[in-house]
Design goal:
The chain is an alpha/beta fold. The chain folds into 2 domains: 1-104 and 241-325, 3-Layer(aba) Sandwich (Isopropylmalate Dehydrogenase), CATH 3.40.718; 117-237, Rossmann fold, CATH 3.40.50. Helices cover 42% and strands 21% of the residues. It is built from 11 helices and 12 strands. The chain has helices at residues 15-28, 42-48, 54-60, 80-92, 144-160, 176-190, 203-212, 224-237, 278-290, 294-307, 314-324, and strands at residues 4-11, 33-37, 65-70, 97-103, 108-114, 124-127, 135-138, 165-170, 197-202, 219-222, 245-249, 257-261. The strands form 2 sheets. The chain has a 10-stranded mixed beta sheet, sandwiched between helices. A two-stranded antiparallel ribbon has the order 6-7. Strand 1 (4-11), helix 1 and strand 2 (33-37) form a beta-alpha-beta unit. The protein is globular. The two termini are 20 Å apart. The chain binds 3-isopropylmalic acid (IPM) and manganese (II) ion.
C-alpha cells in the first residue's frame, strides 16, 4: 500500500507524551507512515500569537489523517485554542462524526456524537456586555442535513454490529425544536434500516443508565454537547478516561480525519510519567482501521486490552503495548 501521510499534533500538556507512545505502537505494529509534526496548541500560540495559520490548515487538508494528543493551556483564556484549533479543524475538515467506542465488561458500545453543529456551532453573542443588563445567548444550530448524515452513519454502524441496536439520546421534552428535528430525522432514517432495533432516552436518564445498566446500549447517536458529556461519563464507567479513544471522522473522505484521546492536556501531571497513553494508542488504532489497516488495528486493540490491567509509567505502558503487538 502506498505510504500514508499523517500529520501529528502533540499539542499541550501530556499530549506530546501520550502521542509519542501511540507512534511507538504504530511502528511496532509494522505500519509505515510518513509522519509530519506540527507545533500547534496553547504553547505555540503564546510563542507565535497564531492559533492555526490558514497556510497550515491548507497543508493539513493534504494529509491522509491527523493524530492529535491534547490541546489547551492554563495561561490561555478558555476557548482560544479549543475554538481556534480543535473546533476549527472539526468544522473546516467537516469531521461530522465524533466516534467514541467503549469496550469494557460493563459498557460495550459506540457513541456517535454529532461534531459540527449544536451549541458548538458558535451562534450567539453578547448585548450590553459588562453592564447589569448584560445578555449572553448561545444558540443550538441543527440542520436537517447535519442531523441526517450523522444519524445515517449511526444506523449503518448499528447494522454492522451483532446486536443491531441504536438509541437516540436527546432532550426532546425540553428542547422541543431541535429535539423534534432529531426525532423526526431518526424515525425517517430508521425506515431504511428495518433490521436495526431502535430506542430513545432522554439524556439525563441516559446518565443514570450509563451507571446503573450500561449493558442496554449498543450504538448511541446524540447531539454535540450531550455527546461530549456522555462520553466523559462513559470513560469513567468503562475503566477511566485514560482509556477513552475517539475518531473525528469525515466519512465521505474528502479530507483527513482526526484521531485523539477524549482526555485533555492535564497540565498538572506533565512530565510525571503518570499520563495514561492507552487512550492515545487506541485512537491511533482507530486511525489505522480508518486507513485500511484493519489487521494492525485489531492487534493494537488486543494488546491494549491485555495491557489495560498493568500499572506503570507512560513509557512503560507504551512499551508493554508495543511488545504485545
Ligand atoms: C472533547 C473535548 C472538546 C470538546 C474541547 C476540548 C473543545 O472536551 O473532545 O470532548 O468539548 O469537544
Ligand atoms: Mn469532552
Amino acid at each position: 500500500m502506498a505510504s500514508r501521510r499523517v500529520a501529528v499534533i502533540g499539542g499541550d500538556g501530556i499530549g506530546p507524551e501520550v502521542v509519542a507512545e501511540a507512534r511507538k505502537v504504530v511502528r511496532a505494529a509494522g505500519v509505515e507512515l510518513e509522519e509530519v509534526d506540527y507545533d500547534l496548541g496553547g504553547a505555540a500560540y503564546l510563542r507565535t500569537g497564531e492559533v492555526l495559520p490558514d497556510r497550515v490548515l491548507e497543508e493539513l487538508r493534504g494529509f491522509d489523517a491527523i493524530l492529535l494528543g491534547a490541546v489547551g493551556a492554563p495561561d490561555v483564556p478558555p476557548g482560544v485554542i479549543e475554538r481556534g484549533l480543535l473546533l476549527r479543524l472539526r468544522f473546516e475538515l467537516d469531521l461530522y462524526v465524533n466516534l467514541r467506542p467503549f469496550h469494557s465488561e460493563r459498557l460495550n458500545c459506540y457513541v456517535v456524537r454529532e461534531n459540527t453543529e449544536g451549541t458548538y456551532a458558535g451562534e450567539g453573542g453578547f448585548l450590553r456586555k459588562g453592564t447589569p443588563h448584560e445578555i449572553a445567548t448561545q444558540g443550538s444550530v441543527n440542520t436537517r442535513m447535519g442531523v441526517e448524515r450523522c444519524v445515517r452513519f449511526a444506523f449503518e454502524l448499528a447494522q454492522s454490529r451483532q446486536r443491531r441496536h441504536l438509541t437516540l439520546v436527546h432532550k426532546t421534552n425540553v428542547l422541543t425544536f431541535a429535539g423534534d428535528l432529531w426525532q423526526r430525522t431518526f424515525d425517517e432514517v430508521a425506515g431504511e434500516f428495518p433490521d436495526v432495533e431502535t430506542a430513545y432516552n432522554h439524556v439525563d436518564a441516559a446518565c443514570i443508565y450509563f451507571v446503573e445498566s450500561p449493558e442496554r446500549y449498543d450504538v448511541i447517536v446524540t447531539d454535540n454537547l450531550f455527546g461530549d458529556i456522555l462520553t466523559d461519563l462513559g470513560g469513567a464507567v468503562a475503566g477511566g478516561i485514560g482509556l477513552a479513544a475517539s475518531a473525528n471522522l469525515n466519512p465521505s473522505r474528502t479530507g483527513p480525519s482526526l484521531f485523539e484521546p477524549v482526555h485533555g492536556s492535564a497540565p498538572d501531571i506533565v512530565g510525571t510519567g503518570k499520563a495514561n497513553p492507552l487512550a492515545a494508542i487506541r485512537s491511533a488504532a482507530m486511525m489505522l482501521d480508518f486507513l485500511g489497516e484493519a489487521d494492525a488495528a485489531a492487534r493494537v486493540e488486543k494488546a491494549v486490552s491485555e495491557a489495560a490491567s498493568l500499572t506503570g509509567t507512560t513509557t512503560e505502558l507504551g512499551d508493554a503495548v508495543a511488545e504485545r503487538v
